[in-house]
Amino acid sequence: MEEVPVTMPDLGGRRVLITGAAQRLGAVIARAFADRGAAVVVHCFRSKGDAEKLVASLPACPAPFKHEVVSCDLADLDAVRRMTEGVGPVDCLVNNAAMWIRGDAPQSELDRQETVNHLAPVELIRLFARMRPQARELSAVNILDAATLSGAAPASPYEAAKAAFRRDTLTLARGLAPYVRVNAVAPGPVFPPRELGGAGMKHIPATLPLERPVAPEDVARAVVFLASAPSVTGAVLPVDCGQSLLFQQP
């Protein structure tokens, strides 16, 4: 049997929008796409300076494409719709942006968290699906949380929003096929919420089967794989140093 070499895909000529991509995990994902030739649209909210620095540091993509920065408050669904119209069609959407607040926060903040973590990314998938050129595929990759794989009742409003987003990932994968693929990556502990500093996950890595935190580059590689694998839709891929094994019975 002839051996076929397996390599990471060349994404030249493809355009990808990554939400919350100015910093942290989103910036790592943006660089992973740019390193493979994709034109990256870096979404941000308050971090426009960081987004512009990131775009300036990315390797150039093939003409006539270019890397771009867009700014939008994802808690404002009208603004989300305007941003989508301004960006225009993309080949891939990565719903990475998220917010975390304490469960005892005011209801207005809890509603904002639900919109940013669940409602806005679902709306983005639907909007870009309608904008997709005929017979051209759209790939959406959603960033969830390994905790959504436990099967237990959500322990916080943040987990509840991510769990609802996981359910909608599967619903959209069924409903938007065959020209829209919808997948997700469920990371374990990568970066702690800004609000907690390192305290929120300081002791977690030692409890995982691999006894280490998740490398953001591994999450980015998983996102690129799902974005560029034509045979895959409706998948939720844990990248969690084995955290999801703790939720399963042998």
Task: Walk me through this protein's architecture.
It is a single chain. The chain has one domain (15-247): 3-Layer(aba) Sandwich (Rossmann fold), CATH 3.40.50. Helices cover 36% and strands 14% of the residues. The chain has 6 helices and 7 strands; from the N terminus they run βαβαβαβαβαβαβ. The radius of gyration is 18 Å and the shape is globular.
Question: How would you summarize what this structure contains?
Answer:
This protein has 250 residues and is α/β, with parallel strands linked by helices. Helix content is 36%, strand content 14%.
Topology:
Layout: E1 15-18, H1 24-35, E2 39-44, H2 48-57, E3 68-71, H3 77-87, E4 92-95, H4 107-131, E5 138-143, H5 157-176, E6 180-187, H6 216-227, E7 236-239
Parallel strand pairs: 1-2, 1-4, 2-3, 4-5, 5-6, 6-7
What portion of residues belong to β-strands? 5-15%
Please list the strands of the largest sheet in the order they lie side by side. Answer: 3-2-1-4-5-6-7
The helix fraction, in percent, is: 25-40%
Number of helices: 6
Average of per-residue pLDDT values = 92
Rounded radius of gyration (Å): 18 Å
Our count of domains comes out at 1
Largest sheet: 7 strands, parallel
| CATH topology-level fold name | Rossmann fold
CATH homologous superfamily name? NAD(P)-binding Rossmann-like Domain
The oligomerization state is single chain
Total beta-strand segments: 7
Q: Which second-level CATH architecture applies?
A: 3-Layer(aba) Sandwich
* N-end to C-end Cα span: 36 Å
Name the shape in a single word.
Answer: globular
